[in-house]
Amino acid sequence: MTASIIDGKAFAANLKEEIARKVRILKELHGLIPGLAVVLVGEDPASQVYVRNKNKSTIAAGMNSFEYLMKDDVSEADLITKVKELNDDPAVHGILVQLPLPKHINEAAVIETIAPEKDVDGFHVINSGLLATGGDGMVPCTPLGCIMMLKDQLGSLSGLDAVVVGRSNIVGKPMAQLLLNESCTVTIAHSRTRNLAEVVGRSDIVVAAVGVPELVKGDWIKEGATVIDVGINRIEKDDGKTKLVGDVEFDSAVLRAGAITPVPGGVGPMTIAVLLKNTVTAACRQAGIDEPT
Ligand code: GUN
């Protein structure tokens, strides 16, 4: 079997179009323009690229984009003051503080300052608690994008065996919760898991989010399984050039899987699209109006 390739880029483009349409409706019917504020501390080049892309996509969707660049020696107190200002600003419906933060800042303290209803990353403990208890909070963007692609591919996920490789707060844990909410039988595997090959080999769904290049071998994959690769790792090739690879050994996995996301062009493009979707959801909830369908 050769897997069908799940085109995350096309999926994200469709989702962005749908969001832009909802934004037009919100403007026309309610005079509401969703606003997303992004706070970047320091000058990490990868973070600068993410933030620039977020800014461009937000504006392209017809929303307001607010960007705050802070020096990498900003104090935790000053960063928290900025977040509180954004909490109180009615034009801002979503707040994202780009991670990682410099070592002298307590990330958890900053995240817990964000008003939960404006926490479009879904990282606040209130939102992770709501996800764990089946409530209606904000859901982290990357796992939500993965679930959307899985449901598009498979329809109902009910009863399927799923493994999430990786246990981060940003992807692994919320991903497992979302799969459980879809009535999958969920295993969370990680770097200490014994016999990972066997755990992966019995899974209908494999979500790899462990940050280790090509850790999941293609010949572990169950025939016909759906594979979602969240990893983005830059590795050096034999000729000294670099390339991006995922957490799954793609060339061999594609021969066994039923469907698989490529790296790049799979999960990556979905994250920003879902961030915009979360911002629209947050704006509607704060304005007390139903989200356009
Ligand atoms: N850094 C890398 N990805 C993300 C993300 O999704 N949200 C935030 N806040 N920071 C990140």
Would you kindly provide a written description of the structure presented here, covering whatever features stand out?
- The chain has 293 residues and is an alpha/beta fold.
- It has 2 domains: 87 residues, Rossmann fold (3-Layer(aba) Sandwich), CATH 3.40.50.10860; 128 residues, 3-Layer(aba) Sandwich (Rossmann fold).
- It is 41% helix and 16% strand.
- The chain has 10 helices and 11 strands.
- The chain has a 6-stranded parallel β-sheet with strand order 1-11-8-7-5-6.
- A hairpin with a 5-residue loop joins strand 9 and strand 10.
- The longest helix has 23 residues.
- It is globular and about 50 Å long.
- The model has no long low-confidence stretch (mean pLDDT 97).
Write a short abstract of this structure.
The chain has 293 residues and is an alpha/beta fold. It has 2 domains: 87 residues, Rossmann fold (3-Layer(aba) Sandwich), CATH 3.40.50; 128 residues, NAD(P)-binding Rossmann-like Domain (Rossmann fold, 3-Layer(aba) Sandwich), CATH 3.40.50.720. It has 10 helices and 11 strands.
Task: Trace the largest sheet across and list its strands.
Answer: 1-11-8-7-5-6
Report the structural category. alpha/beta
Superfamily at the CATH H level of the largest domain?
NAD(P)-binding Rossmann-like Domain
The ordered string of helix (H) and strand (E) elements is EHEHEHEHHHEHEHEEEEHEH
> Helix fraction?
40-55%
Mean of the pLDDT scores? Answer: 97
* End-to-end separation: 38 Å
Shape type: globular
Q: Number of helical segments?
A: 10
Classified by CATH, the class of the largest domain is Alpha Beta
Strand content: 15-25%
Bound ions, cofactors and other small molecules, one mention each: guanine
Tell me the Rg in angstroms: 19 Å
- Biggest beta-sheet profile: 6 strands, parallel
The CATH architecture of the largest domain comes to 3-Layer(aba) Sandwich
Total count of strands? 11
Question: Which regions are unreliable across 5 or more consecutive residues at pLDDT < 50?
Answer: none
Q: What is the CATH topology of the largest domain?
A: Rossmann fold
Counted up, domains total 2
